[in-house]
Each structure stands twice: as C-alpha cells, then as structure tokens.
Give the backbone structure.
Amino acid sequence: MKLYWSPRSPFVRKVMVFAHEVGVLDRLELVRTPVALTSPNLEHIRTRNPLGRIPTLETDEGLLLPESVVICEYLDSLHDGEPLFPPVAERRWPALRRHALGSGLTEVLILWRNERGREEQRRLAAMLDACRTKTLATLDVLDREARELERTPFDIGHVAVGCALGYLDYRFTDLDWREGRPELARWFETFRSRPSARATEPYDG
C-alpha cells in the first residue's frame, strides 16, 4: 500500500501511530507529498485526492482513501488483534467522541497557525481569538476527562488526542497548554512514551 505522507502533518501522524499500534507499518510504502492550504498540489488533486489533502492511502487493490480516520479504520481491518475502533457500543461511542475532540482540535490548530502566518496587517483578530478560545476550551474538557482516558484501553480516541497535543508542542511552543491542566499533561507523557509515538515525532525537512 502507498501512503501519501509528510513528516509534519498531524493527520499523517495519526495514521502512522495507528499503523504502528496495529502492526501493519511494514505494509506501507511512504510517498513524500507536499501539500499546503494555499498552494494546492495539482498532481495530487488530479490523480489521488481531489481534496488535495494528506494522508491519502492507495490500497493494494487501487482504492484511494482520502481521509485519516477512514484510513485508520481500513488499517484496523487488516489485523487480528484488539481493534482500535471498539465494536461494542459502550466503548465505541466514547472512543469516537474522543477522536472527534482530538481531530477537531487539530483542525482548529491548523487554521490558527495559518492565520498567525499571514502578514500582520492581513490577520483577522476575530479568527485568532476564536481559535484560541476553542483550543483552550477543548483542552479544559480533555483535562477533566484525562483520568478516564488513562483508564480506558488504548483506542482511536487516544491516538487523535495524543497527536493533537503533539502538534501543540510542535507548532505552538509559545502556548503553555500544560499550565493548569496537570491531568492531561500527565496522560500525554504516557502517550509520548509509547513506541508508536516516539517513532512518529514530527520534524521539518
């Protein structure tokens, strides 16, 4: 399988962590694919993913999967171990809810970073304020739920939350998100210590 990939993307990292966790990493061929919000990769759009996003997975059968959570669920179908998308409702919906919070937080952070990267006179103060408000509110919720996250067997929700927090460390070094959130900070240290997280740290290059 081909995974269209970049070492900087938090959504790519989510797929890579997942692939490590379910033991299918050796089945992925990584294809470096530059994309940006304001600089569409036209070859990628025309031939692989009309949304112009990564990660994109091309299966052995030639099916092109265009979004990280779909790719993760596909990878979950390729192994015989404990699924990271829990099939039983009492675990499945909390896992998907945590995934939605982690993935949604990542989307907000990408918008926030893009806005902060504009020339100062073109930045929208309302957008910057909104992104900051949503980020801090989500972090507060996750901090209140961190002990439950710690008690729950590792699943897609843990992957998404961990990758979102890792993106904060990577791109928002000026935001001390750990301040006042000791439970979430402690949980994140356990995530960072996992082999899958250590092997997928983002980097420039």
Observations:
- Strands lie at 2-5, 29-32, 56-58, 64-65.
